[in-house]
Design brief:
Length: about 400
Amino acid sequence: MSHFVSEFCEDTLSRIYAETPGLAGRNHLDSAGSSFMSVAVIDAMQAAFDREVKFGGYVAQEQQTEALEASYHALAQLLGGKTSDYAFVGNAVDGWTKAFYSLPFKKGDVIVTAYNEYCANYIAYLQVSKNKGVEIRVARSLPGGGIDIDHMESLIDANTRLISVSHMPSSSGEIIQAAEIGRLAKAKGVLFQLDACQSTGHVPIDVKQIGCDIMTGTSRKFLRGPRGIGFLYVNEQARSQMEPVILTNMSAEWSSLDAYSLRDDARIFEAWERSVINQVGFGAAINYLLELGVERATAQIRNNASYLRTSLAALDSVSMVCPESAKSAIITFNIDGIKPAEVKSRMEKRGIAVQVAKQAHTRLDYEVRDIHEAVRVSPHYYTPKIAMDDFLSALGDIQNGR
């Protein structure tokens, strides 16, 4: 068994557990899918819901103007950049596609991506390739994992419109070299779009340090917010090159009978009709992390990942699916002779939540490595050692047919 390290004192750990009601009677190892909300988030959303019940949606929104505005500042405090560079969207894919399809792709343009790109993003590449004649170029992996930056650089030429990659693939534990790609993109004068759906709240992020022009993320994963809301970061350089694919009365003002005036900030990508309750909850989730300490919280995620990853690798008949360089809290593996769906089903009967990573999620990577699916576990900073040990014990029982 590997050595376990805690970044938090016992009092802080006790408080975190007490403020996470989902942990009662449940061993949740699927933070890469959706993590448990804290009491602070639940209470904020309940209060926002109660306002809507009492006053109606519009009046309730007006009463919470200050909290809603504060949520943009919280995003900028967490991730860097200007408050005006952020928008709230229905989910991460919603934000990603709004930004991507707003770029004026034309025949002969080039998109450079990577071998572990996420399915939703790659499908969009395929569509613009089919409809507009855009070429997709894929940077290969290094032998132990990670993007071959030299190969990526060789793929970039005068026709390259966009470099677009996922910070953490959902089907392995890699953390790609985002800052190196950011420096490369800047040197080549190419826009850089980063899918940070799995990495926000998982590792410290600073958009300026990374050098991305566009970034998207979700509330429900490692940020511990509600489902049904995400964020979109688009800096001024990227916005100046975009024609928003959809305009609404939030995006522009109908300024005369035959004209409209566009917003000059990232909220040009927002919709007027959205969940105020979710935005208030998302803001509360960000503030909870900021109060806890981003460095400490993300370090504890790394500690838990290291403990669980090392413990799994030491088990007989367990084959690790993650590349050698994998360090994140997204851990994929297989058990000899037992299908991942069967492992998930048996774990659920024990009150343990795990997930199945499928080839269709990251086909470029899994197909080359002849992986059809894998069991995926993803602990959070709130995951106690006893819960990880309970999972490992249950895994041993499954291996032995119990």
